[in-house]
Write a structure and sequence with these properties.
The protein is α/β, with parallel strands linked by helices and about 270 residues long. It contains 7 helices and 9 strands; from the N terminus they run αββββααββαβαβαβα.
Amino acid sequence: MNPNIEKAVKFLQDALPFQPEIGLVLGSGLQPLAKELTDPVLIAYADVPGMPHATAPGHIGRFVCGTLEGKKIICMEGRLHGYEGHSPENIVFPIRVMHFLGVRTLILTNAAGGINTSFSVGDLMLIKDHINLTGKSPLTGANDTSIGPRFNDMTFAYAPGLREKALQAAKDCDIQLHTGVYMGVNGPQFETPAEIRAFRTLGADAVGMSTVFEVIAAAHCGLPVLAISMITNMAAGVLMQPLSGEEVNEIADRRGQDLRRLVRGIMKTL
């Protein structure tokens, strides 16, 4: 095991009164779910050996560990992005730490731009696959066989069984849940209308600046993933209006209750 990962795992094992079974990563504007964990243990990223810092607006930068729907959770209140200057390897550092902590399921949420013209702002999309347009991978370089193989399969990176549970939970919660393909880009600039037209031609339904590296790393170590996007804005050129980060966070705050309700419903099935 990488020495930095080993130190971080040991630190968290000593700090936590339980072994987490589910990892939860909260995207832009979706932080309030962390407040719903009971008996929380708060651990700043800065206190964890080797853990990079989160600098994106609205990303607090700490682990919140506690119980949700009877499950032991380690929650990332703020994730890491390439546009902050983090390398792909650093971005997935906490995912690998979760794996070695014993996490069995990883749930990712993000804010995304809607490419599919049948989507509306505030909709939720279950990610069934992704297109990595960053030109990068967290697996570049020497392979650590204690984590995973040199060449890993991505066919079932978004676990079909977990997606079925999410769709059933959405029905039970009376929440509309679209299914689609997520396009991962580096950012931080929003995409141009021409890029969005190209992404739509490639088969993308939504676009964002996170998630794909985390999913690649999870697949590499055999960690099942469920990922949900909140469509916080329609992508460039769809509505022919300017985009802003403030709009993303505003919509996520306004519609976050449904996503939190859905995540809780999914938790009950795990």
